[in-house]
């Protein structure tokens, strides 16, 4: 394996292509069998994959908090994950970072015929999404990934559950498997909540988990019918809960107390105070 140029690794200047080349060289050094980092050398695709997911979530977190000064660093962490996987693949002779970039460049050109081809740009975002899925299905069929290309094929198992649920539902809806309005979805929520209550009282933990999952799945469907992203909505709710609970902690601290030294009634009053003050 050729040794990267030290001058490249320690050159903090230069434009974006230079910095990308520098990142590749740094990663190659970290994985050098003789002089690399012991921790980095122990890693493989499976051990790094959780970090890749974590870094993607940290990007989303910075965006949700509008922490724009943090976003370059978080995006850099995510870019490192791509380079890390490509470096390990290169060592195995599978592919390298050039193959990764060629693949995404070719995909983006092929999936945007209204920009890079002869198709009209006069399309709605919804129509473009349908076209995107149609092109993806054609790619899967051409690659021979399945004798029969199913409607739900290609929805990644590794996605966050809420995100995967809405993608599955969107795919099914495109072929007509969908409720016509939110009225039917709300009725289904009531039905699933009743079944969950019955499972709580009469069934075991496995059945209870199944009914709970059914209710969550229908709640995702309601969000889809309302034009909402369940993942983003729950992320916002998490942030709101965090900020309001911090208000509780601050209020208790002003009284010389901690949450453990308080009770539900006192904390609930501070929660309502936070709501009244518009804490979100």
TrEMBL record:
Q: Which domain of life is it from?
A: Bacteria
Which Pfam families does the record match to this protein?
MazG (PF03819), PRA-PH (PF01503)
According to UniProt, the reaction catalysed is:
ATP + H2O = AMP + diphosphate + H(+)
- Establish whether keyword Transferase is in the entry: no
| GO MF annotation terms | ATP diphosphatase activity
- Record-linked InterPro entries: MazG-like_dom, NTP-PPase_MazG-like_C, NTP-PPase_MazG-like_N, NTP_PyrPHydrolase_MazG, PRib-ATP_PPHydrolase-like
BP term (GO), one: dGTP catabolic process
Keywords from the UniProt entry = Hydrolase
Asked whether the UniProt record includes Lipid metabolism among its keywords, one would answer no
**EC?**
3.6.1.8
Enumerate the spans annotated as NTP pyrophosphohydrolase MazG-like domain.
43-116
Against SUPFAM superfamilies, the record matches this protein to: all-alpha NTP pyrophosphatases
**Family the UniProt entry places it in:** Belongs to the nucleoside triphosphate pyrophosphohydrolase family.
Output this protein's name: Nucleoside triphosphate pyrophosphohydrolase
Its source organism is Thioclava atlantica
């Amino acid at each position: 394996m050729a040794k990267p140029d030290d001058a490249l690794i320690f050159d903090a200047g230069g434009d974006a292509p230079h910095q990308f080349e520098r990142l590749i060289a740094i990663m190659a050094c970290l994985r050098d069998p003789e002089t690399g980092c012991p921790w980095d050398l122990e890693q493989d695709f499976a051990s790094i994959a959780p970090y890749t997911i974590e870094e993607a979530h940290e990007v989303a977190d910075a965006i949700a908090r509008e922490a724009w000064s943090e976003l370059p660093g978080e995006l850099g962490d995510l870019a490192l994950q791509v380079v890390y996987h490509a470096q390990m693949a290169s060592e195995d002779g599978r592919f390298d970072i050039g193959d990764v970039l060629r693949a995404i460049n070719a995909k983006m050109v092929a999936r945007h015929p209204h920009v890079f081809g002869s198709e009209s740009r006069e399309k709605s975002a919804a129509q473009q999404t349908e076209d995107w899925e149609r092109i993806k299905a054609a790619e899967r069929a051409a690659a021979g990934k399945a004798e029969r290309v199913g409607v739900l094929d290609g929805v990644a198992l590794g996605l966050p559950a809420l995100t995967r649920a809405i993608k599955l539902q969107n795919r099914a809806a495109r072929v007509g498997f969908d409720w016509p309005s939110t009225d039917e979805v709300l009725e289904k929520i009531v039905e699933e909540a009743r079944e969950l209550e019955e499972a709580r009282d009469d069934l075991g933990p496995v059945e209870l988990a199944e009914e709970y999952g059914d209710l969550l799945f229908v709640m995702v469907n309601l969000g889809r019918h309302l034009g909402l992203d369940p993942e983003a909505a729950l992320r916002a709710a998490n942030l709101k809960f965090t900020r309001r609970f911090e208000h509780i902690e601050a209020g208790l601290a002003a009284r010389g107390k901690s949450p453990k030294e308080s009770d539900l009634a006192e904390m609930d009053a501070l929660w309502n105070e936070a709501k009244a003050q518009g804490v979100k």
